[in-house]
Design a protein that fits this description.
Layout lengths: L4 H13 L4 H14 L5 H10 L4 H8 L10 H11 L4
Length: about 90
């Protein structure tokens, strides 16, 4: 059974909000709200793969404590930009 685009967006949004640490819940739910609906299928695939990463690693990458792996660096930079944008 194939997942509809709407269900995929809902599932990825929920996975963004229900992480292991509260900081990543906030960061990724903000990013999901800002970006998921405009992402291509390939970008959603990349985001879904990113969601499989460890929360502690993700937090360190997003906050700039350690550099993100090259393959993830562009998306991590975008997440950081959205998460830490001035309100």
């Amino acid at each position: 059974m194939t997942e509809t685009p709407e269900n995929r967006l809902k599932r990825l949004t929920m996975r963004s909000m229900r992480r292991g640490i509260k900081e990543m819940d906030i960061i990724l739910s903000r990013y999901a709200a800002a970006r998921l609906s405009s992402m291509s299928g390939a970008e959603l695939d990349a985001y879904e793969a990113l969601l499989s990463e460890n929360d502690q690693d993700l937090y360190q990458w997003v906050s700039g404590q350690i550099p993100a792996p090259d393959a993830l660096a562009p998306m991590i930079a975008d997440i950081s930009e959205v998460a830490f944008a001035a309100k």
